[in-house]
From TrEMBL:
It catalyses: L-tyrosyl-[protein] + ATP = O-phospho-L-tyrosyl-[protein] + ADP + H(+). InterPro entries: AAA_dom, Bact_polysacc_biosynth/exp, LPS_length_determ_N, P-loop_NTPase, Wzc-like_C. This is non-specific protein-tyrosine kinase. Keywords: ATP-binding, Cell inner membrane, Cell membrane, Kinase, Membrane, Nucleotide-binding, Transferase, Transmembrane, Transmembrane helix, Tyrosine-protein kinase. Residues 451-485 are annotated as: Disordered. It is found in: Cell inner membrane. It is a multi-pass membrane protein. Its main location: membrane.
């Protein structure tokens, strides 16, 4: 994963990074509030040995440096802490005093530093004073030979005891900074890990690789469709979604120039990917371009076309397949140049009906009567209906919803089409969010300003005839039954 991809992931999952930072800061604030402040008192000892000549001075210095290393452990010895416990009225045991003492030598010197930390400033200062007195007496006792009266080592206090008025623990600012940094790193790590473990289709490259077919259109998600998710693009002619579906219409016309596509199956791997709305919109856009279009709802299990277009769906394809009506009796005109054939009643054997010779003959009849036939079929993975119809059509479009459909599902859907020798014309990458990037976010397509007739990006329509056509489509009512009949 490159730097640009990492930045894209962090921008997309900023809420996770921000949440981890907030958790880290909250934890640090709780620790700061619950931790009792502790204060430190420091004292520095100077270790020397008596000498009378230059050689003795040098040897005494080396001797003192070696002794300092041993005295570090002596500062926390049982003998010293027991002596301090006897002399001090602190209520502390030798073990409790020991954990409050920290000793460290200054490298390459004869200086020894000791620090006493305690929750009480006064007791910290008292223990440091006792430590200086008792340590000096203990060293002189241990270093005085039996036959001499003077110690061979001299201990002097050269600094302290000095108490820092600022608590050494907790350190609120440092804790908050470290917690914020840790939360930032943790949030970034979780975001990247989640992205790596996410096997859904997120890019056109991964969709092409999984399906083994090109991506014919990248359809962005439209926030304006939250209240009307099935609203047709002809009512919002200048939206990025409408531009993407027009690109799909154009690409379909040039998929095979020598053998123009006449019957197209629109399907998906699983449910909820937007295949029915794509089929409806694509049909209306072909009709807008002056083509004679027939939209067939072959999803006999969960039909949606009649509901999306606001027409009667009680009679339709199954009525014809059952021999109860002719195509002219049940195909309903919708707008100019478009007819809709709903699914009709729900049969108990949809796969058998769609795989019958009658269905094959019906598709051939549709092909001869209309410029283009768009067939909405069920998802490929749950049932075989879509693959059966796709095998008898000129090709199929695979609608894939961004960040919902997994790469394995796309590959399985493509394999289902291949198993019946159906032609996969390409994929429609649907509901792509702006955070994932896309051609329409790059070009800056936006809504149209009613006062100026220009796009939100400032680009004006220069072709008057095209503008009039789009404006006429935009004025078409959302429930087009009355307009189409």
């Amino acid at each position: 994963m490159g730097v640009r991809e990492v930045l894209r992931v962090l921008r997309k999952r900023w809420w996770l990074v921000l949440g981890m930072v907030a958790i880290g800061l909250g934890a640090a604030a709780a620790v700061n509030a619950r931790t009792t402040p502790t204060y430190a008192t420091s004292v520095t000892f100077f270790i020397t040995t008596p000498n009378s000549g230059i050689n003795e001075v040098y040897q005494g210095g080396l001797f003192s440096q070696q002794r300092v290393k041993s005295y570090t452990s002596l500062l926390t010895s049982d003998r010293l802490t027991a002596a301090m416990a006897r002399r001090a009225d602190t209520g502390l045991t030798p073990d409790q005093i020991r954990v409050r003492i920290d000793a460290s030598p200054t490298p390459e010197t004869v200086l020894l530093n000791a620090t006493v930390t305690d929750e009480s400033v006064d007791r910290s200062r008292q223990l440091a004073g006792l430590l200086a007195t008792e340590f000096k007496a203990l060293v002189e006792t241990l270093e005085t030979p039996p036959d001499q009266k003077l110690s061979s080592v001299k201990v002097e206090v050269v600094a302290g005891p000095t108490t820092d008025p600022t608590p050494v623990s907790p350190r609120p600012v440092r804790n908050l900074l470290l917690a914020g940094l840790f939360g930032l790193l943790a949030g970034a790590g979780l975001s990247i890990l989640r992205e790596v473990l996410d096997t859904t289709v997120k890019t056109t490259e991964s969709l092409t690789a999984s399906a083994g077919a090109p991506v014919l259109a990248v359809v962005p998600v439209d926030s304006g469709l939250k209240d009307a998710p099935h609203r047709l693009v002809t009512t919002m002619a200048h939206s990025p979604r409408a531009e993407a579906l027009r690109q799909l219409r154009t690409n379909l016309q040039f998929v095979d120039v020598d053998h123009p596509i006449r019957t197209v199956v629109v399907t998906s791997a699983v449910a909820g990917e937007g295949k029915s709305s794509t089929a409806c919109n694509l049909a209306t856009l072909f009709a807008e371009a002056g083509r004679r279009v027939l939209l067939v709802d072959a999803d006999l299990r969960r039909p949606k076309v009649a509901e999306y277009l606001g027409i009667e769906g009680a009679v339709g394809l199954t009525t014809i397949l059952a021999g109860q009506a002719a195509i002219e009796d049940v195909a309903q005109p919708w707008g100019s140049g478009m007819w809709v054939l709903p699914s009709g009643f729900q049969p108990p054997n949809p796969s058998e009906l769609l795989g019958s010779e009658h269905m094959a003959d019906l598709l051939e009849h549709f092909r001869s009567q209309y410029d283009i036939v768009i067939v909405d079929c069920p998802p490929l993975l749950p049932v075989t209906d879509g693959a059966i119809v796709a095998a008898r059509a000129d090709g199929a479009l695979l609608v894939t919803r961004a960040r919902k459909t997994t790469q394995a599902e796309v590959a399985a859907a493509a394999a289902a089409l291949g198993s019946v020798d159906a032609r996969l014309l390409g994929c429609v990458f649907n509901m792509v969010k702006p955070a994932d990037g896309g051609p329409y976010s790059y070009y800056g397509y936006g809504s149209v300003s009613p006062s100026s007739g220009r796009h939100a990006s400032g680009r004006a329509d220069t072709d008057a005839s095209v503008r009039e056509l789009l404006d006429a489509a935009a004025d078409r009512p959302e429930a087009p039954v009355s307009a189409g009949r």
